[in-house]
Specification:
D-Maltodextrin-Binding Protein, domain 2; 42% helix; 14% strand; globular
């Protein structure tokens, strides 16, 4: 009996050792994200692991504060392999990223929206691949605004009319403050871009408030000053108002500027809110600059990862047409692949405006510290 038990125990131990060796032989890729639940990647990861049995992908969702608080430390360690970054932070993190060997510059520019592709290309190297895209549009309440503004001048005129007619109870346009508007600095940056402002010199020094060309009288033209005057001229909105999405949901705000996720945020406060979306306005003097500001997230690889080739192969799989479509549907985000945008732009849904603007939307000008630039913009606006 003892011999039988010993034999059985030996078999069990051998089996355990075999399973352990098989598991330890698998290469694990650690993948960090912020907004996406694990459901967004479950099927994609399962299919990838089925096709690549030697690979195990572990996805972890972190809160936004936790993610950025830990990011630099995580990038200095070899445990993190795949990460996500917003478009505007890629340039500031390239020293911590591994460039791709299985993607080319031409491929990105051909297959993905230009704003996302350009955010990933630096010194002719590919540092990331766009996961999704978004852009700013004009939100308006049809009960308060019959016809959406096409220009910023019209938007301000309508805002004043709504404000005056309601005797100040309804704000016309949520522009002119920072604390109660999410990513207000990006709205301000778009206005500067549409006015033709030159942001940085060749050394990435800030020259936003410097002149650009001359006006009709031959005097130096200061486009940034024109934008500042426009921003501060809005008397229908200030930081004493509640959060702009809540004000819109309650019918106390006629127009707002935001990304596509603002639709769901407004509906959180009022599922029956009357929401319409129109293309982003432009300045009358610059009709050709009728582009929106693009934003989005990318997939990248940690330079300190010792599994860079495997990580980039996984990103290749993630961004293939079928998987990118599955991800966009699961997360309700706008795909960055051009082939997936085709056919979506003809919908009458509010989201279709963002799809139509995605191809021509422009990313923020290249810089290695946009968070610092945003801080400077806030101080500059407050100057007398």
């Amino acid at each position: 009996m003892k011999k039988v038990l010993a034999a059985m125990l030996a078999l069990i131990m051998t089996g355990c050792a075999f399973i352990s060796d098989e598991q330890s032989a698998r290469t694990e890729l650690l993948f960090y994200g912020i907004f996406d639940n694990s459901d967004a990647y479950r099927d994609i990861i399962a299919n990838y692991e089925k096709q690549n049995p030697s690979i195990k992908v572990s996805y972890r969702k972190l809160t936004q504060d936790e993610y950025f608080a830990r990011l630099d430390n995580e990038l200095s360690d070899d445990k993190l392999d795949v990460l996500m970054l917003p478009y505007h932070l890629v340039r500031s993190k390239t020293q911590s990223l591994a460039s791709a060997k299985n993607f080319t510059r031409t491929e990105l520019l051909n297959d993905f929206v230009v704003s996302g592709a350009k955010s990933c290309i630096w010194e002719n190297l590919v540092w990331c691949v766009p996961a999704n895209t978004d852009n700013l549009a004009l939100f308006y309440n049809p009960n308060l605004v019959a016809n959406p503004a096409k220009t910023w001048e019209d938007a301000m005129r309508i805002a004043n009319q709504v404000f005056s007619k309601s005797k100040g109870l309804i704000s016309g346009l949520a522009i002119g403050a920072f604390e109660n508007i999410t990513r207000a600095e990006e709205i301000l940056a778009l206005l500067l871009m549409q006015k033709g402002t030159k942001f940085f010199d060749a050394g990435f020094n800030n020259i936003i408030d410097q002149p650009v060309g001359t006006d009709r009288q031959g005097y130096p033209r200061y486009p940034a000053e024109e934008v500042k005057n426009f921003w501060n001229s809005n008397k229908t909105w200030n930081e004493a108002r509640d959060y702009y999405a809540s004000e819109f949901a309650k019918g106390r705000l006629a127009m707002a500027i935001g990304y596509s996720w603002l639709i769901e945020r407004i509906k959180q406060d009022n599922p029956k809110a009357n929401i319409a979306v129109a293309p982003i306005p432009y300045f009358v003097e610059y009709p050709k600059n009728n582009f929106s500001l693009s934003a989005g997230w990318v997939y990248a690889v940690n330079r300190n990862s010792n599994k860079q080739d495997e990580a980039w192969k996984f990103i290749r799989f993630l961004t293939e047409m079928e998987n990118a479509a599955r991800y966009a549907e699961s997360t309700r985000t706008i795909p960055a692949r051009k082939d997936l945008l085709l056919g979506m732009e003809n919908s009458n849904l509010p989201e279709s405006v963002f799809v139509r603007q995605a191809i021509s939307a422009e990313a923020l000008p290249e810089h290695n510290d946009w968070e610092g630039v945003f801080k400077w913009l806030r101080g500059w606006i407050d100057e007398s």
